[in-house]
Structures are given as structure tokens and as C-alpha cells.
């Protein structure tokens, strides 16, 4: 065994290595050889140097001796810190899709050659959708990652798989949009909420097929409404595959919205009510399954205490970038 491989195996048995690798192993997504070292967001300069030949010339990091933080990570971290606050019932997720120019109906095209966080622009919309072929490819890649993390030699947190089928019914109750989620097979009520948008951040990715949107919402739990007295305004059937590791969950969902009426009924109309056609979308979201962990790190930042807020942002964004780079 080479000296390099011996060092890898020794390092892999240390508690520090095992603690760190689980946080970033999902961002690898596919690693055919579990012995191959994969640089991760949580490994800093010493570990990164083991992955490349030693330079014959010693070079300083830069003129000032400190490596600057990636600007995109700083932007996302600032966005998170500003909008997370100390909210309860918070939902944090990153979505893959396409940024579309409203004026042309085509994918956004900007004069940049690398990813860029965008300021709010009324001429841009985000389509949280992908092709069925892209969805199937992600399904294959993530299933492969589940198998890889179950190998005896794998060191780190496993990726756990779950398949659910649910139905969402939306009601308008006293001006509030209420979502009732039920198990599609048993009819059991799983969740009753109203969702309020807090903020979103779009990331344009010209070198990949898809872009990214990071969203922060508040999901306030409610009592189930009188479903006999109130007619649902929308229905969605969700067939979801979830891949969970640590506090992150990658959700691959096929959403079918049946044909439904739109707009208020016109008592003077003589023809049939207006309807929206049935729609099927294929979605991928990276959700923070335990937002309280991130909120606790934010509280430490606010109290000027040592924290992992920036590191968690780095891992969250790293997972999104690893996913978007694998879009067909």
C-alpha cells in the first residue's frame, strides 16, 4: 500500500474525520470508489493539500496571508442570517429549476460565465420544474448514493430513502389559503398549514442545465377546516422520493394537479366556469429537515459566540451545486 493510501486510512479512522465527512458526503452524490478522497466544503487547507501533488515552489496564500471567503457563500450566508431571524415554524429549501425571462419566455441569458446570485427583478421568474428524463437521472444517482453509503467500508452518515404518496387540498378560509395534506392511501391527515413567503434568492448557473432558488417560508399550523362546507380551490397529488442525510433531505417529487376551476364563480355567466388544465411537474428540492439546528447557529452569531453558521451555509450550497452540476 502506498504511503498516501496509508495516510488516508489512518486519517479516516480519526473521530474528527468521521464527524466531518458525514456533513459533506451527500454533496459528493456519486463516488464509485469509496476509498477515493473527495474534497469537501468542511475540509480546509491541510486536507486539500493531500489531494494534489506538492508544489515545487512555496507560494503564499495571497499578499495579505488570508484566504478570502467565496463571495457566493457570503451572499447566501447574509441572506440566511437576515431572513431566518428567530422565527418558529420556518421552512428552508433550495430548488432546482429554470430562471426564465418574462419578456421572452426563454431561459435567462446574462453576460456572465459563472454562477451569480441575482437581485430581485420583476422581469425574471423561476420555474420549479425539470424534464422527466432529468428527474429519472437524479433518481438513479441518488439511489446509487444510498447503496454506496450502505457499504461496510463506508465511513459517515448513511443516506436514508423514503417513498411517500400524498394529496394536498387547498382551501380559501376567511381570506387565508389553507393546505391540508393527507396520506393518499389511508386518507390520514398529515398536516394542516398556511404558508407565508419570507424571501427567496435566485442563483443563475450558466454552465449547467438548471438554476437554483433558495427560499425561506413560514409554515403556521392550523386546525383542519370544515371540508364539507368548503370546496377545495386546488388539488395536488404528490409522489415523492426522499433522500435524507444528517439535517438535509433531497426530495424528488412528481406533482400532478388535476383540471380545476379558476377564479370566482360568476352568477351571471351562462357558460361553463373557466378551468385550468391538468399539469404534471417534476421537482427537486433540498430541504433543511432540522431547521432548528441552523437557527441555533444563527443565535450564536447574534450573540457573538463561536459558531458553524458559515460552514453550514457552505455545506447547504455545496449540496445544491453538486446536484445542479449533475443535471442532464
Describe the structure.
By secondary structure, the chain is of the alpha+beta class. It contains seven helices and twelve strands. The strands form two sheets. It has an eight-stranded antiparallel beta barrel, surrounded by four helices. Strand 4 (160-173) and strand 5 form a beta hairpin. Helix 2 packs parallel to helix 7 (309-324) and helix 4 (71-84) crosses helix 7 (309-324).
Main attributes?
27% helix; 328 residues; single chain; two-stranded antiparallel sheet; 8-stranded antiparallel barrel; alpha+beta
Q: Please report the distance between the alpha carbons of the first and last residues.
A: 37 Å
Instruction: Please bin the fraction of helical residues.
Output: 25-40%
Trace the largest sheet across and list its strands.
1-7-6-5-4-8-9-12
Largest sheet: 8 strands, antiparallel, barrel
* Oligomerization category of the chains in this entry: single chain
**Overall pLDDT score:** 84
Strand and helix order: HHHHEEEHEEEEEEEEEHH
- The rounded Rg comes to 23 Å
Q: What shape does the CA trace take?
A: globular
Fraction of residues in β-strands: 25-35%
Number of helices: 7
Total count of strands: 12
Structural class: alpha+beta
Describe the structure concisely.
By secondary structure, this protein is of the alpha+beta class. It is built from seven helices and twelve strands. The longest helix has 18 residues, at 132-149.
Spell out the blueprint of helices and strands.
Elements: H1 3-12, H2 15-28, H3 45-50, H4 71-84, E1 90-101, E2 116-117, E3 124-127, H5 132-149, E4 160-173, E5 176-183, E6 189-204, E7 211-221, E8 234-245, E9 248-257, E10 260-261, E11 275-276, E12 279-288, H6 291-302, H7 309-324
Antiparallel strand pairs: 1-3, 1-7, 1-12, 2-6, 4-5, 4-8, 5-6, 6-7, 8-9, 9-12, 10-11
Helix pairs in contact: 2-7, 4-7
Amino acid at each position: 500500500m502506498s504511503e498516501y493510501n496509508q495516510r488516508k486510512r489512518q486519517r479516516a479512522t480519526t473521530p474528527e474525520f468521521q464527524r466531518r465527512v458525514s456533513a459533506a458526503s451527500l454533496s459528493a452524490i456519486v463516488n464509485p470508489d469509496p476509498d477515493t478522497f473527495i474534497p469537501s466544503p468542511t475540509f480546509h487547507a491541510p486536507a486539500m493539500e493531500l489531494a494534489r501533488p506538492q508544489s515545487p515552489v512555496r507560494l503564499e496564500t495571497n499578499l495579505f496571508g488570508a484566504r478570502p471567503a467565496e463571495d457566493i457563500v457570503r451572499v447566501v450566508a447574509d441572506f440566511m442570517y437576515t431572513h431566518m431571524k428567530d422565527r418558529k415554524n420556518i421552512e428552508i429549501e433550495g430548488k432546482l429549476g429554470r430562471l426564465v425571462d418574462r419578456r421572452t419566455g426563454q431561459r435567462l441569458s446574462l453576460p456572465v460565465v459563472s454562477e451569480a446570485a441575482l437581485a430581485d427583478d420583476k422581469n425574471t421568474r423561476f420555474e420549479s420544474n425539470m424534464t422527466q428524463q432529468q428527474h429519472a437521472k437524479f433518481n438513479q444517482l441518488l439511489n446509487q448514493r444510498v447503496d454506496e453509503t450502505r457499504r461496510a467500508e463506508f465511513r459517515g452518515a448513511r443516506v436514508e430513502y423514503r417513498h411517500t404518496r400524498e394529496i394536498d387540498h387547498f382551501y380559501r378560509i376567511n381570506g387565508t389559503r389553507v393546505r391540508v395534506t393527507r396520506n393518499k392511501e389511508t386518507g390520514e391527515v398529515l398536516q394542516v398549514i398556511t404558508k407565508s413567503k419570507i424571501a427567496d434568492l435566485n442563483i443563475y448557473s450558466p454552465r449547467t442545465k438548471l438554476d437554483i432558488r433558495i427560499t425561506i417560508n413560514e409554515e403556521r399550523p392550523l386546525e383542519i377546516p370544515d371540508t364539507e362546507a368548503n370546496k377545495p380551490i386546488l388539488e395536488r397529488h404528490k409522489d415523492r422520493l426522499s433522500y435524507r442525510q444528517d439535517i438535509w433531505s433531497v426530495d424528488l417529487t412528481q406533482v400532478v394537479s388535476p383540471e380545476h376551476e379558476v377564479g370566482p364563480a360568476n352568477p351571471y355567466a351562462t357558460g361553463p366556469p373557466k378551468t385550468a388544465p391538468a399539469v404534471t411537474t417534476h421537482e427537486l428540492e433540498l430541504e433543511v429537515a432540522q431547521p432548528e439546528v441552523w437557527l441555533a447557529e444563527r443565535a450564536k452569531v447574534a450573540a457573538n459566540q463561536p459558531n458553524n453558521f458559515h460552514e453550514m451555509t457552505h455545506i447547504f450550497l455545496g449540496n445544491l451545486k453538486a446536484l445542479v452540476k449533475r443535471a442532464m
